[in-house]
Amino acid sequence: MKILLFFALVFFSWGNHWVLAQKQAFGADTTLARQWYQQALTLKQKGSADSAQILLEKAAAIYQKNKLWRQQINCSNEITRVLLMQGKYEVALQNALVALHESKIKLKKANLVVADALHVMGIVHYYRGNYDQAMQFYQQALQLKLALLGDTHPNLSSSYNNIGIIYYRKGDYEQALEYYQKDLQVCLKKNGDNRVSIGASYGNIGNVYFDKGDYEQALTYTQLALKFKQEALGEFHPDLANTYNSLGNIYSSKGELDKALEYNFKALHLWLPAFGEAHPNVAAAYNNIGTIYEEKGEYEKAAEYYQKNLQILLQSFDENHPDLASVYHNLGTVYTKQKNFELALQNLQKAWQIRRKSLGEVHDDVAESYFGIGNVYFTQGDYDKALEYYQTNLQILLQSIGQKSPNLAAAYNALGAAYLGKSSYTAALRYYQKAMVANVVTFQDTLLTSNPTLAHQASIYLDGNYLLSSLQAKGIILEMQFAQSHALPDLQQAYRIYCSADTLMARIQQAYTRENDKVAFTHRTRQVYQAALGVSMQLHRVTQEPDYLNKAFYFAERGKAIVLSATLAEAKAKTFAGIADSLLLKDQQLRTQIADYSQQVAQELVQADSAGSNNKLQKYQTLLFTAHRQQENLISKLEKKYPQYYNLKYRPNTIDFTQIQKLLDDKTAMLEYVVGDTLLQIFTLTRQSFKVQSLTIDSTFRRKIAAFRHAILSQDAALYQQTAFSLSKILLPSLLPKSIQQLLIIPDGELTTLPFEALLTQNHKKRANSYLMHQYTISYAYSARLLFERLTQPDENSGKQLLALAPVFADSGTNAMVDTNYSLLVQNSDSTVRKSIVSSVRKNQAESNPNDITRGWLRNGQYVSPLLASIREVESIALRFQQRGNTAKVYLYNQAREEQLKSGEVENYNYLHLATHGFVNESYPELSGLLLAQDSTAQEDGILYMGEIYNLRLKAELVTLSACETGLGKLASGEGIIGLTRAFLYAGARNMVVSFWKVPDESTAELMENFYAALLSGKDKAQALQIAKRKMAKQRKYHPPFYWAPFVLVGK
User: Fold this and answer.
1) Which CATH superfamily is 1-133 part of?
2) Which residues, including other chains, have CB under 8 Å from residue 808's CB and lie 6 or more apart?
């Protein structure tokens, strides 16, 4: 993908001295012209090109009338600049030609106005993509300035800057850097306020380092550029968009895609009002947004933005402009990934032709075209043809960018992949080794058994994701070689490679600042950790060394909920690091803002087709961008000012299985699952033993899981019998000690929403005591690491204090949906609630059969289904608490409001019970939530969204979500479910009871009453839930698992 960069060119006018003299000679009219000219420069600096042009034309007319040729030509030069700002390149060219011609005729001797006319002509050719002609005019202007001013004058800055840009565009980065440095030195010596010029210089230097692949240097210089520009221009000047655009490109290349997307949208939102839709800068923003969506795998959306870019550029440039080549190339890459190979080749070859014509053969953009075409053939499986193009790409890069570069690493990786496709393992390894040499600054070893040392920060790599690809591929090849040769050194070397990859992945993830980017990265890390686990298991089988078994468990854990663990560790670090209350308050305020703005952005994206939505979307994206930047600055301040916070936050958070063993009693076993593409690993841990079982699986395994869930929901007894027993045989270790009575389940992948309690241990129709719940009490955890932290927490020693909320929705005060909520829920195509609305429109459905009401259904139109059984539920539970001398507070009907949970009161309760409607949005988890009392006059909207849950302050031993699908959410590979459970755990819940599907109101109330009755009688939480489920299963009407299986315990 080609990223487009537009630069803040520094242009200067040379009229101040002669303007003072004209006032005396010509009087009022020229004084007015002078005022118009100065006002025009101010407007131009503010980005108001149209208004500036009007004033400049009026001033030029007065100067022409008075035959003040220098002043008139100077105005003409500025008019050309504002025409360029507006994207009117043909008109700008004609204007510049006239100005240059007149300067040579009417100004007899060489002067700065002539130099500026030459310089402006260079700018016009630059924008038209004629780089050689632009360079000729820039050089003529520079020589004239040097003759008139000497070699240290501030007015040389613009020439140095723009010559540097031409070298940059032509791929000569060393020459570009030399001229940018000259420009910077001149800018730093100038007197007066020249922060914009300094910022532009820093930004252009950053662009060079970016294309050289030194992202850290690029980031440093580009952040300096932003600082200087903001100081001079404020927050909303369109010239800042260049810098935001560049920062977005840097973050994108570092793999921080969500963060990059925010920066690119920020650039777009500054450019659009300044220049309008049909401007090349806006096109650049569309292009870069498209590249991010392509990286995220959203190819349709990427193509949509590329097409927007193309349509604008076709109106602005001729057909051979280099920027058109970039968009053709990007369209080609996305078509390749969509496997539309014919269209891909058409676009890629068109880009290649334009680039060769405008840039010559030896240019990294031309190399990129060869690389893209090679990718088409590689994806088609034509590895020989791919190798031809990959080799040409490599040879050009070696000539144009040197020996150390991410692009060079990518070229070697591609060659390695092609040879791997041909099963030429040695050649593939050789190229992957070269990729690492090209990527790691201090690594030069081409010996295939060598790997870069990555354990300390001094090891500098250019592109972490490319380096991870190299390491991962080497590991895969060595494992494949071992399968053929059975040579132990191959397997041992693969193991060492995966250990290096583990260190690298930790460094990459630690550098990310946005949780969404960290979670997205776990999809990549999961693949590596599963491969590492497999190699460790093979080494254990071959060598019988226990260390490899320990390492297999380590890799299994590294692939589970690592972001959640880090997030919880950071929250704990803030508590124990002695941070000032004022800073903690600021952090809390920013977190609240970010949650609110994230929810609003998601809401506007859902409603993207409604009137006025785009303006709102832009507003909330801007607010979210600002809040994120403020939060990053605050976190950076905390890490520097409070070393203990930094140490606690980044302290290695790994455990050995023996640490967990010590916490297990003789009746408890922990089962941890790792679900791969073709292999299921089951780690079984008891107080006395640790075993790992590896099972081969295929697509039928996943189909069984889906069929099992479907059978429960549809109450298909035959299908349930078949799948429940079959899955039990697969998922339950056959050699569990008979003494085991409790299972601690750590699921993975599709297993995260499977209620193990409903598995069958016997294959017969009479299932009275065949459910797994009859044999074991069961609870769940995200990872063994989080389970360990929970098991080491002291049990509650204070009394039990209950806070229970049940909106009931039985009257118009609480069940009439607030309009904004109704609109959102209806348009949310992925949420359960919308399906419920559509289904519930059937007249009087809810009233006709109260037993059909579930805690996730809306009744009709804009009214919420009443949950009448929830009244009995919470009152019964509260009474049981009070009868045992405990505190219980209940909010019913319109008192069960969002404000009750956001107030400080909630911290006074260690049991929180919410009986209401729940809803889940897998596409936009931010829009998942719990419905509370609806009140259009309240400040809150009556929905407790996921982001708001994160910011609650709980001290809860148990949170029970007596609502629908509260255990569901977006399944993130390697991280688990992103949903309400995770949010409550972060907010301070130690244990949770949540549901896996839509639960009936009546049966839910009965199950909850039984659960709390057992809990308050002295049973632990898992036992209490087991007792409640058994009681339900004994009743004829509630015997099917549909009624009792959805609720599970997360925790201890």
Assistant:
1) Tetratricopeptide repeat domain (1.25.40.10)
2) 814, 866, 867, 868, 870, 871, 892, 893, 896
Do the beta carbons of residue 407 and residue 416 sit within 8 Å?
A: no
Q: Which of 443, 381, 378 is nearest to 413 (CA)?
A: 378
Q: What is the pTM of this model?
A: 0.87
For 817, which DSSP code?
Answer: -
Is-contact 861 841, C-beta < 8 A? Answer: yes
pLDDT of residue 155: 87
In the chain, what's the furthest Cα-to-Cα distance? 111
Q: What CA–CA distance (Å, rounded) separates 41 from 82?
A: 10
d(CA 534, CA 536): 5
Cα(first)–Cα(last) distance of the chain, in Å? 48
Summarize pLDDT for 861-901 with one digit per residue, the tens: 457 889 999 999 999 999 999 999 999 999 999 999 999 99
What pLDDT was estimated at residue 844? Answer: 32
Cα 959 from Cα 744, distance rounded (Å): 19
pLDDT at 841: 31
pLDDT band at 151 (very low <50, low <70, confident <90, very high): confident
| Of 386, 440, 458, 373, nearest in space to 416 by CA | 386
Query: What H or E segment, with its residue span, contains residue 57?
Result: helix 49-65
DSSP letter string, 317-372? S-TT-HHHHHHHHHHHHHHHHTT-HHHHHHHHHHHHHHHHHHH-SSSHHHHHHHHH
Taking only Cα atoms into account, the Rg of the chain, rounded to an integer number of angstroms, comes to 33
Q: Span 382-401, mean pLDDT?
A: 95
Neighbouring C-beta atoms of residue 861, cutoff 10 Å? 12
Cβ within 8 Å of residue 789, ≥6 positions away: 568
Q: What is the pLDDT of residue 846?
A: 39
Q: How far apart are CA 885 and CA 703, in angstroms?
A: 50
Closest Cα to residue 510, out of 567, 468, 551?
Answer: 567
Q: How far apart are CA 73 and CA 106, in angstroms?
A: 9
Class of domain 403-559: mainly alpha
Residue count of the chain: 1052
Q: Give me 793's structure tokens.
A: 């927490």
- As a whole number of angstroms, the distance between CA 277 and CA 1014 comes to 65
In the structure encoding, which two tokens stand for residue 564, read together?
A: 């959640």
Res 26 pLDDT > 90: no
278-292, 609-623, 845-859: which has the minimum mean pLDDT? Answer: 845-859
Q: What residues contact 864, with CB distance under 8 A and at least 6 apart? A: 809, 814, 815, 816, 817, 858, 917, 931, 934
**For the segment 769-807, what is each residue's pLDDT rounded down to a tens digit?**
789 999 999 999 999 999 999 888 877 667 899 999 999
CA torsion sign for 1015, 1021, 1024, 1028 is: positive
So where are the chain's domains? 1-133, 150-233, 403-559, 579-641, 663-790, 797-1017
Q: pLDDT of 198-219, one tens digit each?
A: 999 999 999 999 998 899 999 9
**CB count, 10 Å around CB of 473?**
20
Mean pLDDT of the chain: 88
| β partners of residue 135 | none
pLDDT of residue 965: 83
User: Around Cβ 714, how many Cβ atoms within 10 Å?
Assistant: 11
Q: List, for residues 603-628, the tens digit of each pLDDT value.
A: 888 876 544 447 889 999 999 999 99
- Mean pLDDT computed over 957-976: 86
Instruction: Choose which CATH entry (3.55.10.10, 2.60.300.12, 3.40.50.2300, 1.25.40.10) describes domain 150-233.
Output: 1.25.40.10
CA distance 378 to 814: 60
Q: What is the DSSP letter of 970?
A: E
Instruction: Decide if 1-133 and 150-233 have a common fold.
Output: yes
Contact 243, 249 (CB under 8 A): no
Average pLDDT, stretch 388-416? 94
